[in-house]
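Exercise 7. Given the encoded structure of a 190-residue chain, write a plausible sequence.
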């Protein structure tokens, strides 16, 4: 199976992710946060093989696609939606009243990165971090994964020079992710 899930401790996650090494499992103390990585199609490199079309409409010039990508931990569904030259990824079902990626990014034209970071506590996912690339900038979206398998965007971290956006996104996810209430709590922007 091409889509490997990499279970990584905080100390080994960056090394394994950067070299694309084999899955590494580390036993973590109970209550600690671990990271899991999954891959989806690489839109920017035009590499498509992991996500499969489950619904399409529109015409050849303006297709509207919904694709199912490899699942995340604990069976979380990953869906890539494409329309009007925009691509967005969602996790599970959209939480009522919570922000979608399209809403959180104000409908911007952006390409999703191929790697998704899942944050887990005691083996249960509570947040997903996903990078989006624009022509002149990048952002990390932090998604709250609720126990009922609904999700929403809880925070956005702008990638900027001299700022470790990956570390900041992980800290925000760990701080607000477990308690964030989609549709009630306000979107955090850093």
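Solution.
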């Amino acid at each position: 199976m091409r889509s490997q899930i990499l279970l990584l401790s905080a100390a080994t996650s960056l090394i394994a992710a950067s070299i694309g090494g084999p899955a590494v499992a580390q036993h973590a103390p109970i209550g600690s946060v671990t990271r899991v990585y999954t891959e989806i199609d690489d839109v920017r490199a035009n590499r498509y093989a992991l996500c499969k079309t489950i619904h399409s409409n529109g015409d050849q010039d303006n297709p509207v696609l919904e694709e199912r990508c490899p699942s995340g931990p604990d069976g979380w569904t990953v869906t890539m939606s494409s329309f009007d030259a925009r691509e967005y990824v969602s996790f599970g079902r959209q939480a009522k009243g919570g922000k979608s990626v399209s809403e959180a990014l104000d409908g911007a034209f952006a390409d999703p990165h191929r790697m998704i970071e899942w944050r887990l506590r005691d083996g249960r996912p509570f947040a997903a971090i996903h990078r989006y690339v624009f022509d002149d900038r990048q952002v990390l979206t932090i998604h709250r994964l609720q126990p009922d398998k609904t999700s929403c965007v809880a925070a956005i971290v702008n990638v900027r020079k001299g700022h470790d956006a990956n570390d900041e996104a992980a800290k925000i996810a760990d701080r607000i992710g477990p308690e964030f209430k989609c549709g009630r709590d306000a979107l955090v922007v850093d």
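Remark. Confidence is low (pLDDT under 50) at residues 1-29. Students should compare their own answers with the one above.
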